[in-house]
UniProtKB/TrEMBL annotation:
GO cellular component, one term: proton-transporting ATP synthase complex
Subcellular location: Mitochondrion membrane
Protein name, entry field: ATP synthase complex subunit 8
Keyword Transmembrane helix set for record: yes
A GO molecular-function descriptor: proton transmembrane transporter activity
Keywords from the named record: CF(0), Hydrogen ion transport, Ion transport, Membrane, Mitochondrion, Transmembrane, Transmembrane helix, Transport
An annotated GO BP: proton motive force-driven ATP synthesis
């Protein structure tokens, strides 16, 4: 029925927007960033030689 076509388009639009938002949020929150260079920098001991 052509009268129901806009309702179907709206449903599909909302459905794909929800899938898109869920996909992006899962990718954003499931990403674990391992910064090994910062871990190594923080573990170094700093030798400060005072010149006075």
């Amino acid at each position: 029925m052509p009268q129901m076509a806009p309702m179907n388009w709206l449903f599909l639009f909302i459905f794909f927007i929800l899938i898109f938002l869920m996909f992006n949020s899962l990718n954003y929150f499931s990403f674990i960033y391992n910064n090994k260079s910062m871990i190594n920098k923080n573990s170094k001991t700093f030798n400060i030689n005072w010149k006075w």
